[in-house]
Design a protein that fits this description.
Blueprint lengths: L10 H12 L7 E4 L9 H16 L3 E6 L9 H14 L7 E2 L4 H13 L3 E4 L3 H7 L17 H13 L8 E4 L14 E5 L13 E3 L1 H12 L3 E5 L6 H10 L8 E5 L11 H9 L14 H7 L3 H11 L10 H15 L1 E3 L1 E2 L2 E6 L8 E6 L9 E6 L2 E5 L19 E4 L4 E9 L5 E9 L16 E2 L1 E3 L4 E8 L24 E8 L11 E4 L3 E5 L11 E6 L4 H9 L5
Parallel strand pairs: 1-2, 2-3, 8-9, 10-23, 12-18, 16-19, 21-25
Antiparallel strand pairs: 4-5, 5-6, 6-7, 11-22, 12-15, 13-14, 15-20, 16-17, 17-18, 21-22, 23-24, 24-25
Length: 565
């Protein structure tokens, strides 16, 4: 699993290196990856995953997959399965997962101990009042009238909260810290709230559920986590993380929290809430739509796990939030497929070509190279015949100066085929070109003319009578805005209405060898993934354009005047 890591040096690895020699925990490293089972993993999670599992691997430690299942209303077992599946797809073997709900009993016992120590109390104020009385950055908080309840009364009320005697929102358990603390997180944070909800693992056993802060750090402690790595927005929660550990009487070698910048990508939304909105409002087909930044979406789109990991490794870990260009991620995808993908020919917008001098009924098989980057990939047979399809935009009736492809009277090379010359153009009633009449030169079978004459372009083609009919999905950015949702705007306001376009394409017969989920290069057009749900025992019906051939990242760098990152 070595390649899963975003290795190199960064502040987290520096810390781990220090701790490895003479630090706490006897040099032991244990991390965790704590998703909430309320949605699918996305590319942002991949950054956390490659860090959490990566450093554990590099430092001879272990990483625990722990489901943070403390909100029964939105969580579900299907997400538990999906998250493990997605981790395996990414190349991580997560092992037996843990669940925060496994610790509900211990968390409750600790909460009772805190009450007994006078460090927690039951508050009867409603959520709105609690929030108002918390104060602001410049105003102190206001003590709850229930803050100084006796231990006995607190124990009794907390037991009755647990037994389900009160309505949701009627009472909460709060830690008794400091209502004037400069850090708002420390102003008597809520530890438990009442929820009469069915939990997918604990059923109807509990009527109180721990908050994130109470559950998280204590779960870390129970598991023996040494380094609890999370994203920057939890920076202000760190004092509370430490306070709870101290309050429950944890010894010296307790877990510590470290924060890194979350991944942001241009033209991309990585908030689960917003992704859910895309799905539930039918802006996309589902969580696994090829336009989604979920691992499932990226997989359908043809993004290989190796490229996702290489990208995460390349961008590294920082302490300040930033936004990465989506084109950088795409360049990793392109690089991977350039070495690995088979080449095939397909025509997305077919224009019929008749080879007028083709001998009647003659069958001809051309040989084409499967992957110029990989000799071992060998060659394939491509049928040639007297009726072909070429790409409509590879022909122009009245070409401008810099157009070198096919035009009336002009000769071009057909890739792995012959030189053809366009002699006649047939048009429909509206002037649209309907068919080209061409002649081929049988002497150019090897791709060169024996007399040495040159052509200025090589175009792709398929034999009409041998072609497979496939649908091809072309994609544009899902959000037109490069920073959707910046400045507090609703990211969905910049949803691109034209993010997907279907083409009825013609493909050479060898496209039939491509398995569902496999990525192929359609020559001159880009990389395309056969749909994952296509019947593996039947001819392909659907391809998704993964990414085009042009390296837009290189252009961006040139524009920015950088030599490379
Ligand atoms: P959301 O707030 O959108 O629901 P989340 O961060 O709460 O997302 P979790 O399932 O709780 O989602 O996340 C699990 C882990 O993945 C957390 O440790 C979180 O820090 C990390 N993570 C989530 N999104 C990103 C991101 N964009 N970049 C890096 N790490 C992320
Ligand atoms: Mg979360």
């Amino acid at each position: 699993m070595a390649s899963a890591s975003n290795s190199g040096t960064d502040f987290i690895r520096e810390t781990l290196r220090e701790h490895a020699s003479d630090g706490p925990y006897g040099g032991r490293v244990q991390t965790r990856f704590p998703p909430e089972p309320n949605g699918f993993l996305h590319i942002g999670h991949a950054k956390a995953i490659t860090l959490d599992f990566g450093v554990a691997d590099e430092f001879g430690g272990s990483c625990r997959l722990r489901f943070d299942d403390t909100n029964p209303e939105t969580e579900d077992a299907r997400f538990v399965d999906a998250i493990q599946e997605d981790l395996r797809w990414l190349g991580i073997e997560p092992g037996e997962p843990a669940f925060a709900s496994d610790y509900f009993g211990q968390l409750h016992a600790w909460a009772v101990a805190l009450i007994e120590d006078g460090k927690a109390y039951v508050d009867d104020q409603d959520a709105e009042t609690i929030s108002e009385n918390r104060g602001g950055f410049t105003t102190p908080g206001v003590d709850s009238p229930w803050r100084d309840r006796s231990v006995e009364e607190n124990l009794d009320l907390f037991a009755r909260m647990k037994a389900g005697e009160f309505a949701e929102g009627e009472r909460v358990l709060r830690a008794k810290i400091d209502m004037n603390h400069e850090n708002m997180q420390m102003r008597d944070p809520v530890m438990y709230r009442i929820r009469h909800k069915h939990h997918f693992r604990t059923g109807d056993e509990w009527h109180i559920y721990p908050t994130y802060d109470w559950a998280h750090g204590q779960s870390d402690a129970i598991e023996g986590t040494t380094h609890s790595i999370c994203t920057l927005e939890f920076d202000s929660h760190r004092p509370l993380y430490d306070w709870y550990h101290e309050a429950i009487g944890l010894g010296g070698e307790r877990p510590r929290q470290y924060e890194f910048a979350r991944l942001n990508l241009t033209h991309t939304v990585l908030s689960k809430r917003k992704l859910l909105e895309l799905v539930s409002d039918d802006h996309v087909d589902g969580w696994d739509d090829a336009r989604m930044p979920t691992l499932r979406g990226l997989r359908r789109r043809g993004y290989p796990p190796e490229a996702i990991r290489a990208f995460c490794s390349h961008i590294g870990i920082a302490k300040v939030n930033g936004v990465h260009e989506i084109e950088l991620l795409e360049s990793f995808v392109r690089t991977h497929h350039n070495t690995n993908a088979l080449r095939r020919m397909a025509v997305l917008d077919p224009l019929e070509v008749i080879i007028t001098n083709w001998p009647d009924g003659q069958d001809d098989i051309r040989e084409a190279i499967n992957n110029p980057e990989d000799e071992a990939a060998g060659t394939r047979e491509v049928p040639f015949s007297g009726r072909l399809f070429i790409e409509r935009d590879d022909f122009m009736l009245d070409p401008p100066k810099k157009f070198f492809r096919l035009a009336p009277g002009r000769e071009v090379r057909l890739r792995a085929g012959y030189f053809i010359t366009c002699n006649e153009v047939e048009t429909g009633a509206d002037g649209e070109v309907t068919r080209l009449l061409c002649t081929y030169d049988p002497e150019t079978a090897g791709g060169q003319a024996p007399d040495g004459r040159k052509v200025k372009a090589t175009i792709h083609w398929v034999s009409a009578d041998h072609a497979l009919d496939v649908d091809v999905m072309l994609y544009d950015r899902l959000f037109t805005d490069s920073h959707p949702g910046a400045d507090g705007a609703d990211p969905l306001a910049s949803l691109n209405p034209d993010s997907r376009e279907v083409r009825s394409a013609k493909a050479e017969p060898a496209v039939g060898d491509i398995a569902p989920g496999e990525v192929v290069q359609f020559e001159r057009l880009g990389y395309f993934a056969r749909d994952l749900d296509d019947d593996p025992n039947a001819a392909p019906t659907l391809f998704h354009r993964t990414v085009g051939l042009r390296d837009e990242w290189a252009n961006i760098q040139k524009r920015q005047g950088q030599g490379g990152k």
